[in-house]
Amino acid sequence: MHFKKFIIIFALFVGFVMALTPGQAQNNSDRTSDLQLLARAINGEARGEPYEGQVAVGAVILNRVKDPRFPNSIAGVIYQPGAFTAVSDGQINVPIDPNSTVVKAAQDALNGWDPTYGCVYYWNPATATSKWIWSREIVTKIGKHYFGK
Amino acid sequence: MEYDEKEYILEKHEAHDSEHKRDRVPPGYYARNKAKNVVIVFLALTTLFGAYEFQLAVKLRRQLDAQYNRAFYEMTGYVQDIEVLLAKAMLTSSNEKAADILKDIWHRAELVSTNLGQLPIQQGALVNTQKFISQVGDYAKTLTSQNVKGKTLTQEQMDTIKNLHQLAVSLNDNLDKFHGELTAGTMTWANLAGEGTRLFAKNDVEIPMTISNIDGTFENMPTLIYDGPFSEHMTKQKALGLTGDKVTEEQAIENLGKLFGKENIRNIQKVSDNKNGVIDTYNFRFELEGKKEKSIAEADVSVVGGRVVWFLYNRDVGDVELDIDKAKEVGKQFLEKSGFKSMKDTYYTEQQGIATINYAYEQDGVIVYPDLIKVKVALDNGEIVGFESKGYLMSHRQRDIPKPAISMEEALQKVARKENIISSGLAIIPTNYGSELFCYEFKGKLDDQDFLVYINAMTGEEEDILLIINSDEGILTM
């Protein structure tokens, strides 16, 4: 009886370890354009947020590209180490439907809609661990995120 | 107690059983042994698996550190180059040589920026350093184009270069110290990224002194004003097109009602008062009774003047029923209804059944591109599903447009492919540093490639060339 319990525990442990190891990367779409990358970033960062909040996250990324304090390409900004959790936790690699809302939101951001008026930071006040981020000037609050300069 | 009893009974029971069996193997021996073996195998497997994973992690860490080191060494090399080049820029008396040196600075700054952006350094820790590098590059680029036009550097510009050089020297010193810590092993990239502590960290990992020293150099950097996109004046732009008194929240809602029809707006809520941005606004969320369905819409109304700055109405679009010409007309009608007169459609994109059309203001036959409004038209039923007027609100005013100093024919002589020009007109175009240029706009076609050339109507200089991209997704300029 005891051994069976052990076996079950070990099996669970092994399964747990396996689950923690990242699996084979999903088949990436052949389009690596800015729109696709931006849409994936929005999907990883703001899925479940109001539409405006998704556009806003896209706008922050584009505002960074234009800001001297950040890298000057969309890929450079998104993949800056530690800049976005969607990159650290792999959410950015989740494939998206070409007709999904995040693609529309990315398109609107690229077309110049910016609900944040030039913000380069956003954070979730409930989970943000950085003290520094609170020193930013808040411009707007959309859904779960604060947007600041 | 209970347990012991059970065991006892069980053992008794088994002992009794064994009497009927010939072999001496205790009962349950095989089953128990099998279970033991399975556990041993599992243990061995997990240990092996763990060891493999650990090795893999070490290998990946090494690869990652190698990438970080490469980026760091490249970056420091280019920063040293920039320091030397800035010193040389102060010593040359030749315009051509100065242009060469400045071009090199610009190029090196781009490379520093790319590498710096790859280092795993906490958010915000090196923003001022990055800004310094971006501005050095941008400033050098601006001076290069000035030199190319044959203008010598002014004393003021020389002083700025001297300042930038001093900052580059201290950046190099600080990078040296940082390099020392890296090679001594007192600092690792994993530490810098705050890895290994994240799981339990309540707050930030403290930014190491060496890093804050690097960035501290630039905290009180003098503001750089010049004709480039990273110039300080770009962050202090005012909304020239917003005039009038401050409006209340109720008035703002009323203005939205004028646009969509009061009866179509339900459950309107003010979500936020937007401050500190370029335009202060009320942000609203409401249900819009659209032609097709009721859906959530979001909109901003400016506090000053009560203008709708943008709105978005995200809904699925059905089969395309409208062509682009009809959509342009629908958009224009909407603009007129909203009080934007004299708007001319320019370019558009078409995606997922929605046309996004750009309209520019037209004054006395001159197209004013900075006064830009974008309208999204759903191509299934012609409904307006989006609107964005920040460009217009930031720059619109009645301009004193001068008489061109050169004639259309004179300007045409400046165009490289005169024979390919199809049409011409006058336009005001924006620069990437916030100013405007009054130009002749020539449209031409070369080997099926449509293009636009802008010749300054006052000086005759060629200011810009744009390619017009005709694709399934619309007409764009690049």
From TrEMBL, chain A:
<dbReference type="GO" id="GO:0016787">
    <property type="term" value="F:hydrolase activity"/>
</dbReference>
<dbReference type="InterPro" id="IPR011105">
    <property type="entry name" value="Cell_wall_hydrolase_SleB"/>
</dbReference>
<dbReference type="InterPro" id="IPR042047">
    <property type="entry name" value="SleB_dom1"/>
</dbReference>
<protein>
    <submittedName>
        <fullName>N-acetylmuramoyl-L-alanine amidase</fullName>
    </submittedName>
</protein>
<feature type="signal peptide">
    <location>
        <begin position="1"/>
        <end position="19"/>
    </location>
</feature>
<dbReference type="Pfam" id="PF07486">
    <property type="entry name" value="Hydrolase_2"/>
</dbReference>
<keyword id="KW-0732">Signal</keyword>
<feature type="domain" description="Cell wall hydrolase SleB">
    <location>
        <begin position="48"/>
        <end position="147"/>
    </location>
</feature>
